[in-house]
Amino acid sequence: MTALLTEYSDFDRHTFGPDFVWGTATAAYQIEGAVDRDGRTPSVWDTFSRQKGKIKTGETADVACEFYDRYESDLRLHKELGFDAFRFSLSWSRILPDGVGPKLGGRLNEAGLAFYNRLIDHCLALGMTPWITLYHWDLPQALENKGGWPNRNIVDWFAEFADICTKAFGHKVKHWIILNEPLAFSVLGYFTGQHAPGRRSFRNLLPVIHHTALAQAEGGRIVRQNVPDAQVGTTFSCSPIDPFTASTRDGAAAARVDALMNRLFIEPALGLGYPTKELPFLAGIAKKVAKPGDMERLAFDFDFVGLQHYFRAVVEHSYFMPYLWASQVSPLRRNVSTITEMGWEVYPESMYRIIQQFSQYEGVRKIHITESGAAFYDTVQNGAVNDTARLEYHQNYLYQILRAKRDGLPVTGYFAWTFLDNFEWAEGYRPRFGLVYVDFRTQQRTVKASGRWFQQLLTNQHRLADVNQS
Ligand code: GAL
C-alpha cells in the first residue's frame, strides 16, 4: 500500500465505529442502459444527449454499464468489496412512463416496479442495505413537455411519484433520499443550460428553485408518512468557499457564492428561508413566485443530510457574472497541480471544513457523505488498474472525515462516488470515477487498486480474493 496508509496506521473500518455506513453511490441514468426496454420512456437526459454538441463526446447512456441486465453480478461484486450499503436512484419514466401515475391520469409500469423489486431483493439477500434516491436528474420527457420544473404542477407530479415508490418499496427499504443535488439540476438544467433539459433563461430560475425546494420538503413528508420507520434525508452539493484575496470585495463575493452553492436549498428546509441577504434577487421568490403558505411548506425535519463534496472553490469579485458578481479562480490560475480530470482541485481538508460548516446548523443532527470521489485517467495493464491517485483521494478525504468524527461532528457514513465507471453526464464516458473499471466495448469489469483498498479496509482481509469479473 502507499505511504499514506502507514501514516494512517490506525485507519480501518473499526476506527470509524460500528454504526458508520460504508457504501457507494450510483444513479439510474448513469448506469442502467436499457433505455427503451420494458416500457421505459425517455427522460430529459435521453433527449438532451441526442442533441448535437450537448455531450462533449457525443455519447448517450443508451447502454451505459448495462446494469439493468447485470445488476446481479454487479451487486455480488459490490458485496465482495465489503460495502454494506448500495445507493441507487429510481428512473421515474421506468415506473411512470407518462410522468404521472394513475391518480393524475397516467399509467403505472409494473415492469419498472418489478426491476427495482428484483434489485432491492438482491441487495437484501446479499446482506446490503438499499438506499434509494427518488430523483437523480432524469425527469420524464413527458413532464418536460408539460413545462418541467418551471411548472408548479411539478410539486404534485413529484408527490405522486414519491407516494407510489414509497408504497411499493417502503416495506423493504428504510433509507430514502429525496433529491440529488438540487442546485445542479435546477441551475445547470434551466439557467446555464449545460445539463438536461438545456434551457437557458433567468425567467425560469426563481420558479425552478422554488418548486424544487417545495418538492424537497413535500417528498420528505410523503416518505415519513408512508414509511414511518424510515431514515429520510436529501443531498446537497457543497464546497467550502475561499476568497482569492483578503480584500473586502472578494470576501463579499465568497459570501454570495457560499449562499448559492451551500445554503440555497438547506436553509429553506431548516425553516430559515432563502438566503436573500447575500442574494437579493431571491427575494423575487416570495414576491412573485410563492403562493400563500408556501414559505412554511418549505420546511421539513430531515433525519439526515447527505453532503456531496469533491472540491473547494476559490472565488473573486467579478463584473462579468450578473447577480452573483463573482467568479471562480481556477486551480490552474492558482498554480495548483493536484487536479482531477474534471479540473477539480484535490484539497482533502475541505471535507473537514464542509462537515464543520453544515454541523453548525441546529437542525442538522446527522450527516452522511453521500458522494465523494475523483476522476483520473485509468489504464488496464496486465489485468490491473493501478489508480494510486484515486486511492489516495479516498484515503485523504476519509481521514478528514475521521478527524471530524473525533472532534465530535455528527458524520456517520461514506458513499464513494462511484462503484462502476459510468456515463458522466455532459462529459460522456471519459471521466472515470469508478472503483471498478468498465471496458465499455466488452462490459468487462476490473477492480481498480482503489476498489481493492476499500475491500481490504472493509473486510480486513490480508490476502485479497480475486474478484475481477466479466
Ligand atoms: C455529482 C452527481 C453524480 C456524479 C458526480 C461526479 O454531482 O450527483 O451523478 O456525476 O457528481 O461528477
What is this structure's SSE topology?
Layout: H1 3-7, E1 21-25, H2 28-31, H3 44-50, H4 67-80, E2 85-89, H5 92-95, H6 110-125, E3 129-135, H7 141-144, H8 154-169, E4 175-179, H9 182-190, H10 202-226, E5 231-237, E6 241-243, H11 248-263, H12 266-269, H13 283-289, H14 294-297, E7 304-308, E8 313-317, E9 326-328, H15 349-359, E10 367-372, H16 388-406, E11 411-416, E12 436-439, E13 444-447, H17 449-459
Parallel strand pairs: 1-2, 1-11, 2-3, 3-4, 4-5, 5-7, 6-8, 7-10, 10-11
Antiparallel strand pairs: 8-9, 12-13
Beta-D-galactopyranose binds at residues 27, 30, 180-181, 184, 237, 308, 371, 417, 424-425, 433.
- Name of the top-level CATH class: Alpha Beta
Say how many strands there are.
13
What is the name of the CATH superfamily?
Answer: Glycosidases
Radius of gyration, CA atoms, in whole angstroms: 21 Å
Question: The CATH topology, please?
Answer: TIM Barrel
Give the % helix.
25-40%
Low-confidence stretches: 1-7, 461-470
Q: Which term fits the overall shape?
A: globular
Write the element-wise H/E pattern from the N-terminal end onward: HEHHHEHHEHHEHHEEHHHHEEEHEHEEEH
- CATH structural architecture: Alpha-Beta Barrel
Q: How many separate domains?
A: 1
Biggest β-sheet strands, sense, barrel: 8 strands, parallel, barrel
If you average the pLDDT, what whole number results?
A: 95
Number of helices: 17
- Taking the alpha carbons of the first and last residues, their distance comes to 26 Å
Bound molecules: beta-D-galactopyranose
- Which structural class is indicated by helix and strand composition? alpha/beta
In percent terms, what proportion of residues is strand?
5-15%
- The largest sheet has its strands arranged as 1-2-3-4-5-7-10-11
Catalytic activity: Hydrolysis of terminal, non-reducing beta-D-glucosyl residues with release of beta-D-glucose
Pfam family, one: Glyco_hydro_1
EC number: 3.2.1.21
Protein name: Beta-glucosidase
